[in-house]
Amino acid sequence: MRPLVGAKTQQLISRVFTPVSPVRWRAAQTRRSCGSSPNGEKPRPSMLRHLTSKIKATGPISVAEYMREVLTNPVTGYYVRNNMLGPDGDFITSPEISQIFGELLGVWILSEWMGGGRPKQLQLVELGPGKGSLASDVLRVFSQLRSVLGEASVSLHLVEVSPVLSRLQAQNLTGNYSQEAGAEDEPIYRRGETTTGLPVSWYRCLDDVPAGFSIFLAHEFFDALPIHKFQRTEKGWREVMVDIDPETPDRLRFVVTPSPTLASSTLVQADERRDHVEVCAEGGVIIQQLARRISEDGGAALIADYGHDGTKTDTFRGFKGHQLHDVLVSPGSADLTADVDFSYLRRMAAGGVVCLGPVTQRTFLKNMGIDTRLQVLLRNCADPSTRKQLISSYDMLTNPAKMGERFHFFSLLPHSRLSKPKKPEGLKMEKKSPAPLPVAGFSELSFS
């Protein structure tokens, strides 16, 4: 049975249904070569040489350290020096496939803002905002529903470690209305303003984002955080490390430590039944930060990512040119990722907030009214090729064999969000206490 959408959410969705360009494919900027320049420029520092030198000096490194170096090393890191998004990059994300994705998330944000009591301040905080496509679609929803927001002060806060991507985000979101900070140690390293006058700020870490009612978005963010890998052996849990292949000195290999490490002694749960486990300790820290902020200041977090609920084992993989790539070959030239363990994130939240999900992307988007949105766009579109693109992008987002069941949605909410208001005391004619607003996307909602 097709899920219905709640009345309040339906009202928001119906007001966003304006015919705009259906697909947001944009060619990525030319990616820089990993080799030497034909013009005689100095060759780029080698990530492989850096890693082998490090291993020779200190011994095998953890998979977490390997991922951290390969992805975010300030000189040779993949995210630091590449524009990897889009058809010409190494992977493409849902916001680049269809504008509908970002529009429905914009409706979700407004729904949770209303569920939180319509505070006068709304901070939209995105972790790892890619090219800025998702934020752009969300802000367009805000602009179309400005009357709903009323006098609320809205601001956009982007947590981004990549200088290349931050410049691309600034161009897409602010045009020429942004500038970098004068000092490297400034918490806000870039400031800007959208064409509608909305302030935009860039940060390197979540801690620097100011306190206040915030809706946090993390789309394909947690899957790129460093993981530790552990293997069950006859002697107990041992950590999987990265070492130099002794037979081929310019190649890397996985090894299992002969004795326990601090990580294998502290990160693996005592009741773990799997034989191979991946734990993202950094992701756990960020979830605790989000839970604390939501508990203290209100708001919500919406996480969308590849993931599972504590069932999978070895998911560590690389992507290059939209194809799977050996994670230990040509480090720094490909994206590295691992499926998010949502059961671990739930455990790290430690009851400080309410955790909803994970639910599949197909379920979430259908609960949010993607079918209705598609029909509206099709009715307003006469061009056959555009209609074909609309249907194709819808299929990509919702088809179980494509993104529909590979991606999952997970949310953090304050306990007050789902608690019933107290009934007034001392009155003979008491009205029934109103139920809290349902959370859009996470259940089959119906008209009241």
UniProtKB/TrEMBL annotation:
<dbReference type="InterPro" id="IPR038375">
    <property type="entry name" value="NDUFAF7_sf"/>
</dbReference>
<dbReference type="Pfam" id="PF02636">
    <property type="entry name" value="Methyltransf_28"/>
</dbReference>
<dbReference type="GO" id="GO:0032259">
    <property type="term" value="P:methylation"/>
</dbReference>
<keyword id="KW-0496">Mitochondrion</keyword>
<feature type="compositionally biased region" description="Polar residues">
    <location>
        <begin position="30"/>
        <end position="39"/>
    </location>
</feature>
<dbReference type="InterPro" id="IPR029063">
    <property type="entry name" value="SAM-dependent_MTases_sf"/>
</dbReference>
<feature type="region of interest" description="Disordered">
    <location>
        <begin position="420"/>
        <end position="448"/>
    </location>
</feature>
<dbReference type="GO" id="GO:0005739">
    <property type="term" value="C:mitochondrion"/>
</dbReference>
<keyword id="KW-0809">Transit peptide</keyword>
<protein>
    <recommendedName>
        <fullName>Protein arginine methyltransferase NDUFAF7</fullName>
        <ecNumber>2.1.1.320</ecNumber>
    </recommendedName>
</protein>
<keyword id="KW-0489">Methyltransferase</keyword>
<dbReference type="InterPro" id="IPR003788">
    <property type="entry name" value="NDUFAF7"/>
</dbReference>
<feature type="compositionally biased region" description="Basic and acidic residues">
    <location>
        <begin position="422"/>
        <end position="433"/>
    </location>
</feature>
<comment type="function">
    <text>Arginine methyltransferase involved in the assembly or stability of mitochondrial NADH:ubiquinone oxidoreductase complex (complex I). Acts by mediating symmetric dimethylation of 'Arg-118' of NDUFS2 after it assembles into the complex I, stabilizing the early intermediate complex.</text>
</comment>
<dbReference type="GO" id="GO:0035243">
    <property type="term" value="F:protein-arginine omega-N symmetric methyltransferase activity"/>
</dbReference>
<comment type="similarity">
    <text>Belongs to the NDUFAF7 family.</text>
</comment>
<feature type="region of interest" description="Disordered">
    <location>
        <begin position="28"/>
        <end position="47"/>
    </location>
</feature>
<dbReference type="GO" id="GO:0032981">
    <property type="term" value="P:mitochondrial respiratory chain complex I assembly"/>
</dbReference>
<keyword id="KW-0808">Transferase</keyword>
